[in-house]
Write a structure and sequence with these properties.
The chain is of the alpha+beta class and about 550 residues long. It folds into four domains: about 35 residues, no CATH class; about 130 residues, D-Maltodextrin-Binding Protein, domain 2, CATH 3.40.190; about 140 residues, Alpha-Beta Complex (Dipeptide-binding Protein, domain 1); about 220 residues, Roll (Dipeptide-binding Protein, domain 3), CATH 3.10.105.10. The protein contains 15 helices and 22 strands. Strands 4, 11, 12, 13, 14, 15, 16, 17, 18, 19 and 20 form an eleven-stranded mixed sheet that branches. It has a four-stranded antiparallel sheet with strand order 7-8-10-9. Helix 8 runs antiparallel to helix 10 and helix 14 packs antiparallel against helix 15.
């Protein structure tokens, strides 16, 4: 018996050839296997851009992480569409792992035969190098510092070629989820030298612009004009460890960058792109839902936005002033008018629906002008001597509807009668530089989870060792409590600490939560594989468009 394969333009046939004794050969076609039903290329549009780089030692933004997550691989991943809890961790570059009884040692058993793009096999040395590089570079604006990797990881030990140990400084309950975060993705040491601050964009050389390997896609083209991202092209990585399972589903992905939500909306309406993701305006989403040729995707989100106070600018160093400003904010016009009900008011830095969430900022209320006037009057402010504030917002589409949010904040604060607000809008690169320079008095930022645990909404913002906000908030008590909750395995004790941390957040008001947004994408009807889940990982490798 002989297996016969007959190929053609439409696919190929699999059959069995039999030769009866003394007879002629006959061929029986038993199955038809068609060619891929998917288009070779999907074109996606976004108003996002690379914040600084696509290097895990540096990137600390949604889009930079998305590129890392689709061109690289972690040791363990989050199962798509899952709640992203400990039971939802899935093997990636590690086939299996175990944790010591005291919770201080995590052992990862690595896949064998995984090859990098330059033909070198992946080993435990690559894992050790990747983590030690990030912690040695210690970029103050990067996630490795912001999350506090060096406060968690004591050492990384290559036990053998295919086994690596992480020796922790404390029994970290969210360490599995942390291993799925973009800063934990493994770099190619030949493209990620230890001595450099980060790998930067190199004009005309996509390979030199990225330290990533081992992922479903390879970045093959990256075009910038005048410092602004124009287009990225990704090709399927034939060496991807999970290629045999059919990933990525699309051979080529083209990412086009648009200046604002309006141009992105026009692009999806005109069929210029197959998929639009981040940032479409709420009115755009509402309108596009009525278009029969388009498909609207909505998913859960842990994305929040919040107001930051720069405490080296007086009088914002006074918590009474910060509380008065926080009490004057009216969240409902933001969620109901700006976002047309597509967002929810938020009264804690811990998102709604996450463990330990408590609506603590309701103690100050919304548009609580009686409280605000009383607090500010004690400090000498009145309707004839107003507190004058400079409120900054980014104007380039990095966040949806930022100018509208700023106008609502200005309106609600000024309705107190004792506050005057001056608005300043700048593009995202300038905004980020201003934050680092500590020159903005009040400014609005957004946050996507690094890992799905409430610690990720507290430690990076209010612990003085995680200084990426540059807000100059420094509380020894807050530092102590945020570090203690990280290191406790006692659920009751952690519950008490989380309650105390959130109470102190209100008392000090270094940042003020505003709202929590849903997650949206718009596509042509033939597009599938869009997974919008609580992890906020946007997986290019699942996307496809039928022919």
């Amino acid at each position: 018996m002989i297996l016969i394969v007959i190929s053609g333009l439409g696919g190929y046939f699999v059959g069995v050839s039999t030769v009866p004794p003394g007879g002629e050969k006959t061929i029986t076609l038993t199955e038809t296997v068609t060619a891929s039903p998917y288009k070779d290329t999907v074109i996606m549009g976004t108003t996002d851009s690379v914040q600084s780089s696509i290097d895990p030692s540096d990137a600390y933004d949604f889009f930079g992480w998305t590129v890392i997550q689709n061109t690289g691989s972690p040791l363990i991943d989050i199962t798509p569409g899952s709640p992203a809890g400990p039971k939802d961790l899935a093997p990636a570059l590690a086939e299996s792992w175990s944790v010591s009884s005291d919770g201080l040692t995590w052992t990862f058993n690595l896949r064998k035969g995984v090859m990098s793009g330059d033909g070198v096999e992946f080993t435990a040395d690559d894992v050790k190098y990747s983590f030690e590089r990030g912690m040695k570079i210690a970029n103050p604006d990067g996630a490795v510092v912001g999350i506090g990797y060096d406060a968690i990881i004591g050492s990384v030990e290559a036990v053998s070629k295919y086994q690596v140990n992480f020796n922790l400084k404390f029994a970290c309950g969210f360490f599995g989820q942390l291993m799925a975060a973009a800063p934990s993705y493994i770099v190619n040491p030949r493209y990620a030298p230890m001595q450099y601050f980060r790998i930067n964009y190199t004009d005309g050389n996509a390979r030199a612009s990225s330290p990533m390997d081992f992922g479903p896609y390879t970045l093959t083209s990256w075009t910038r004009v005048g410092g602004k991202d124009q287009e990225m092209k990704f090709d399927a990585n034939p060496l991807y460890w999970n290629a045999a399972a059919g990933y990525p589903k699309t051979k080529h992905l083209v990412l086009r960058f648009y200046s604002d939500a309006t141009t992105l909306r026009l692009a999806i309406e005109a069929g210029e792109v197959d998929l639009a993701y981040r940032q479409l305006g709420s009115t755009d989403i509402q309108s596009l839902q009525q278009k029969a040729q388009l498909k609207v995707w909505q998913g859960p989100s842990q994305f929040i936005q919040y107001l930051v106070f720069q405490q080296n600018i007086k009088p914002l160093d006074n918590p009474a002033v910060r509380r008065a400003i926080a009490a004057s904010i009216d969240r409902k016009p933001i969620t109901d008018v700006v976002f047309l009900g597509q967002a929810t008011p938020l009264y804690s830095m811990i998102p709604n629906g996450m463990a330990y969430h408590s609506d603590v900022f309701k103690k100050l209320g919304d548009a609580n002008y009686t409280y605000a006037k009383t607090e500010l009057a004690a400090l000498g402010y009145s309707e004839t001597k107003k507190l004058v504030l400079d409120l900054w917002y980014e104007s380039s589409g990095h966040y949806e509807s930022s100018p509208d949010i700023a106008n609502v904040l200005k309106s609600s604060l000024e309705k107190s009668g004792v506050i005057q607000v001056n608005l300043h809008g700048v593009d995202w690169p300038t905004y980020r530089n201003n934050m680092r320079a500590e020159s903005m008095a009040l400014f609005v930022l957004g946050w996507y989870p690094d890992y799905v645990d409430p610690d990720n909404y507290l430690y990076p913002f209010v612990n003085s060792k995680a200084s990426w906000l540059h807000s100059n908030y420094n509380s020894p008590l807050m530092d102590s409590m945020t570090e203690e909750q990280r290191a406790t395995a006692d659920p009751q004790k952690r519950t008490q600490l989380m309650a105390s941390i959130q109470d102190l957040l209100v008392e000090d008001s270094p940042i003020v939560p505003l709202f929590q947004k849903s997650n949206w994408a718009i596509s042509k009807q033939n597009v599938g594989g869009v997974v919008l889940d609580i992890s906020m990982i946007f997986r290019y490798y699942l996307l496809f468009a039928t022919k």
